Amino acid sequence: MRVAALRARRSSSSSGTPRVRQIRLNAFDMATPGHIQQGMWTHPRDTASNYARLDYWTGLARLLERGLFDGLFLADVLGVYDVYGGSPAAALHGGVQVPLLDPLLVVPAMAAATTHLGFGVTSNTAYEAPYLFARRMSTLDHLTGGRIGWNIVTGYLDSAARALGFDSQMRHDDRYDLADEYMDAVYALWEGSWAEDAVKRDTAGRVFTDPARVRAIAHEGRQFRIKAMHLCEPSPQRTPVLYQAGASERGRRFAARHAECVFVNGTRPDIVARLVADLRGRAAPRRILVFVGATVVVGRTEAEAQAILADYAAHADAEGALAHASASLGIDFARYDMDEPIEGQPSQAIQSNVEAMKRMAGPALTKRRLLEQSVLGSRQPPIVGDPVQVADELMRWMAAADVDGFNLSRTVMPECLESFIGLVVPVLQERGVFKTGYAPGTYREKLFAAGPRLPEGHPAASHRF
């Protein structure tokens, strides 16, 4: 399609579209060869196998900042996917989120390579002491200049529990009870241990910190007992931007209390709209941003996009997709024949994934049907089209589901992001729904156009010095 024709389509498509809120964009990634779309690392143009090289991450960060992305959302798990066939063999064979690096350790280098990009890192509340974790996040907030966020997770793998010395993980809702207490502990450390004016840096008076303006916090709970001062001076945001991805009943209660940004799976806009309305109602009057997961395959024309999709699909890994699904759903798909009906059994895995699977597939779910839906090695159907078609679909989701933005999962790296930035971002900018430059300030200030600290209505505020 010629450039003039494409511009004409952009103009005509957007002219009758009502103005919507600004779209927020995160890249959704993981420090591993295979993240969501299993098998894409085998594509000859994919570079994800370089995940253990620092220049892979600094190059990604520069690319995302060039595309004006709000952030890089880094997933993480503890443990391996060993539900499928009762073994980690399929996950290891297919590079399904293993091998896997610690996402927090790649952030400082990416921050040094950029100025504005935010970084959302995933960390599990079940297996790390709040005192140690609070220092790690304050350190990252300092080293990034206030560009760090935390995706709060409670875990879902028994293999992680065994790795940390337990027979199995805690029950689903009990993990959220622990997480509620964990949050109170880290809030107290981040917000309540050091006064804003505690650090003097007074060389003449030889006073770096005023001892009267620092205090030990005292937390006594069912899971944690802490009496200590926080080791870090106040960082630009103090508490990082808080992400959460639980969509179960208990997860939504947790999100409504703590989260500033919520990540939901992209099933259908009507299903997501009901979930978003529930989350916003629970959190009111506090504002939250909702990001929906999306996979985009874009070409200069629709025919080119379909050709790219077929090329990518040829590399999809069916066994890898089943290994991933088995772990997240708590169902061993290896036990079923291709056309045998599959019943979701009670488990301590991701309950919202099981509920979403039932809504989408109904009682007729089989392994064959699951694999037919896994076009690119995951259960997430891709958005496919030319730049205008992709922009139309993203805006349709914004309007129909009342979401604020998207977590874009990778396919073939880095071309999937280069194509999106080069083709889709200009269309969104022409329509006035995506920024043309970064606002100043911390990650929180950029996202909410407010101050660097959590608002007074947030539970963290009750812990302030």
Question: How would you describe this protein?
Answer:
With 465 residues, the chain is of the alpha/beta class. Helices cover 39% and strands 14% of the residues. It has 16 helices and 14 strands. It is globular, with a radius of gyration of 22 Å.
Roughly how many Å is the radius of gyration?
Answer: 22 Å
Provide the helix percentage.
25-40%
Number of strands: 14
Question: Going across the major beta sheet, what is the strand order?
Answer: 1-2-3-4-9-10-11-14
CATH architecture: Alpha-Beta Barrel
In percent terms, what proportion of residues is strand? 5-15%
The residue-averaged pLDDT reads 91
Short characterization:
This protein has 465 residues and is α/β, with parallel strands linked by helices.
List the helices and strands and how they pair.
Layout: H1 3-15, E1 24-29, H2 54-66, E2 71-74, H3 89-94, H4 107-112, E3 118-124, H5 130-143, E4 148-153, H6 158-163, H7 172-192, E5 199-202, E6 207-209, E7 217-220, E8 225-228, E9 241-244, H8 249-258, E10 261-264, H9 269-283, E11 289-294, E12 296-298, H10 302-313, H11 318-329, H12 351-361, H13 367-373, E13 383-385, H14 387-401, E14 405-409, H15 415-430, H16 443-448
Parallel strand pairs: 1-2, 1-14, 2-3, 3-4, 4-9, 9-10, 10-11, 11-14, 12-13
Antiparallel strand pairs: 5-6, 7-8
Helix pairs in contact: 5-7, 7-8, 8-9, 14-15
